[in-house]
Automatic annotation (TrEMBL):
Family: Belongs to the anthranilate phosphoribosyltransferase family.
EC number: 2.4.2.18
Residues where Mg(2+) 2 binds: D223, E224
Signal peptide per UniProt: none
One term of GO molecular function: anthranilate phosphoribosyltransferase activity
Native organism taxonomy: Bacteria, Pseudomonadati, Pseudomonadota, Alphaproteobacteria, Sphingomonadales
Residues of the Glycosyl transferase family domain: 73-320
Amino-acid biosynthesis is among the record's keywords: yes
Binding site for Mg(2+) 1: S90, E224
PANTHER family (alphabetical): ANTHRANILATE PHOSPHORIBOSYLTRANSFERASE
InterPro entries named in the record: Anthranilate_Pribosyl_Tfrase (IPR005940), Glycosyl_Trfase_fam3 (IPR000312), Glycosyl_Trfase_fam3_N_dom (IPR017459), Glycosyl_Trfase_fam3_N_dom_sf (IPR036320), Nuc_phospho_transferase (IPR035902)
Binding site for anthranilate 1: G78, N109
Subunit-structure text: Homodimer.
Name listed for the protein in its UniProt record: Anthranilate phosphoribosyltransferase
The encoding gene: trpD
């Protein structure tokens, strides 16, 4: 029988060794579920430090099932939880960026706080989640894109998920998705729903040795670059974008957030297909803005207007749509 250990008091910031041991004990089932719940709640109420976020990510990374990413691979992922229930912007961005020739290891999951997560929408489009997960390495190598379904790659989270549901509030694990990509993508565009957490999150990425990333948050609390107004941007590693970006910086018009309100998986999947078939409007421009930033982080483009134009070309000439079709056929 496993001997249960005691978690440290999270009332004050934890030292690196204490944080590393605490998250190892949590993920390896060496402490009780009640103790885990109390620890996570207290940590959230006190406010997590960048060191604690980084150590939680390190513990999760050490226990994931990995795949190998080619050089220059990028992930485009948000933490979720912004409450705006938008269309799947980062999923569409992943297709556009991959269609530009940048390898994309898209890490994602089913909906938690929204109506349709990336996995739900891709499944509604016809992607077989089980096969897509099993063939992730092959599709990344052959097509330049894969979907890393979180449930397939993070067995250590199986015990934590029901505890999080019982707690019913945000914990440090809500921040883990973009920090625990199974391909260890060296470049990232990360959206976070809390503008006040962008700098803290960027510090955690720096501690994790990220090659290049930007952490972004729409000023209205959107977990992506906002098509409605300015967004906060924090650079990590070699990334060097402006610290405040608005749609017009990429030569794009503004649209109200209502223009990208989503629905269930079938609704979001239909909207994504229309986008890939050339539909214009708020969804397209939000995708172009975020794709432009991702292309700059990936080293594909140097300026936002040029990057947005490159992204638009993949929609207009059908490359992004053809990539989705090839992906579905492959899987």
């Amino acid at each position: 029988m496993t001997t249960l250990t005691l978690l440290p008091d999270p009332g004050t910031p934890l030292a690196r060794e204490s944080a590393a041991q605490a998250f190892a004990d949590i993920l390896d089932a060496r402490t009780s579920e009640e103790a885990i719940a109390d620890f996570l709640i207290a940590l959230a109420e006190r406010g997590e430090t960048s060191l604690e976020i980084a150590e939680a990510a390190r513990a999760l990374r050490a226990r994931l099932i990995p795949i190998t990413a080619p050089p220059g691979t990028i992930d485009v992922c948000g933490t979720g939880g912004d409450g705006h229930h938008t269309l799947n912007v980062s999923t569409a961005v992943s297709l556009v960026v991959a269609a530009c020739g940048v390898p994309v290891a898209k890490h994602g999951n089913r909906a938690a706080s929204s109506k349709a997560g990336a996995a739900d929408t891709l499944e509604a489009l016809g992607l077989d989640m089980e096969r897509a997960g099993r063939l992730a390495q092959a599709t990344l190598d052959d097509l330049g894109i894969c979907f890393l379904f979180a449930a397939n790659h993070h067995p250590a989270m199986k015990r934590i998920t029901p505890i999080r549901r019982r707690i019913g509030r945000r914990t440090i694990f809500n921040l883990m998705g973009p920090l625990a990509n199974p391909a260890h993508a060296p470049r990232q565009l990360i959206g976070i729903a809390r503008p006040d957490y962008t700098a803290l999150y960027a510090e955690a990425l720096e501690q994790l040795g990220t090659e290049a990333a930007i952490v972004v948050s729409g000023e209205e609390g959107l977990d992506e670059l906002s098509g409605a107004g300015p967004s906060i941007v924090v650079n990590v590693g070699s990334a060097a974008l402006p610290t405040r970006i608005a749609p017009e910086d990429a030569g794009l018009p503004r649209h109200p957030i209502a223009a990208i309100h989503g629905g269930d998986p079938a609704f979001n999947a239909a909207a994504l297909r229309r986008l890939l078939h050339g539909e214009t409007g708020g969804y397209r421009d939000a995708v172009l803005l975020n794709a432009a930033a991702a292309l700059i982080v990936a080293g594909h483009s140097a300026a936002l207007p040029d990057a947005a134009a490159a992204a638009a070309e993949t929609l207009d000439d059908g490359r992004a749509n053809a990539l989705l079709d090839a992906w579905i056929a492959y899987s």
